[in-house]
Write a structure and sequence with these properties.
It is a single chain. The protein has helices spanning 5-26, 33-40, 47-50, 54-79, 84-92, 95-99, 106-114, 119-140, 150-168, 172-189, 193-196. It is mostly helical and 201 residues long. The protein has a domain at 54-192: Orthogonal Bundle (Tetracycline Repressor, domain 2). α4 (54-79) crosses α5 and α8 packs across α9. This is TetR/AcrR family transcriptional regulator.
Length: 201
């Protein structure tokens, strides 16, 4: 039975969504197309009707993962518009986010893998990272120029590195300390740090 164009488009979206989560859990090279397609509820034979190659899927899945991450940052910021930076730090530098290997930040999960991927995958990540930087810059007063400011880049680097290191160790106490230290460092670097040291809800 032929699949309608609408159904084919929905199937493609399903594969992209599933791949974005499975790649974050296993890495781009840690899972094959058969497992990705099975995870989406399809046979491997259906893959090439939807995508040109695994690299094509990796680029699409990377874009979707970064979109998901940006949505989570936006949702956290909107929940606390008076202090969006602290709101994002609260969820990003948390033990809960550390445990979210399939749904957590794709830069943490796949950052080292991306360097070995093609230009399209790297472009998807670069676009998402620039969105991170733009959002952070708007919160700390570094959003005026075309390129991100040094403080903004340092904050993002600290946040990503802390979650990566927290996942790399077995000692839960050490893991938590990485996250806590990064949160304190980010709030100190922020120009709004003095104000944020006051009482908060």
């Amino acid at each position: 039975m032929r699949v309608s164009r609408i159904q084919a488009a929905e199937n493609r979206e399903t594969v992209i969504n599933v791949a974005s989560r499975l790649f974050r859990e296993h890495g781009f090279d840690g899972i094959g197309l058969k497992d990705v397609m099975e995870g989406a509820g399809f046979t491997q034979g259906a893959f090439y009707k939807q995508f040109a190659s695994k690299d094509d899927l990796a680029a699409q899945a990377s874009r979707r993962a970064m979109e998901s991450a940006f949505y989570r940052w936006s949702a956290a910021a909107e929940a606390n518009p008076k202090d969006p930076l602290r709101a994002v730090i609260a969820f990003y530098l948390s033990m809960e986010h550390r445990a979210e290997r399939m749904d957590g930040c794709p830069v943490v999960a796949l950052g080292s893998d991306v360097a070995r991927q093609g230009a399209d995958v790297r472009a998807s990540f670069e676009a998402g990272i620039r969105e991170y930087l733009k959002m952070l810059g708007s919160w700390i007063g570094e959003a005026d120029g075309e390129e991100p400011g040094g403080k903004t880049m340092a904050i993002l680097s600290t946040m990503v590195g802390a979650v990566l290191l927290s996942r790399a160790v077995n000692d839960e106490r050490l893991s938590k300390r990485f996250l806590q230290a990064a949160a304190e460092s980010v709030l100190t670097v922020s120009p709004a740090g003095d104000a944020q040291k006051g009482p908060h809800q």
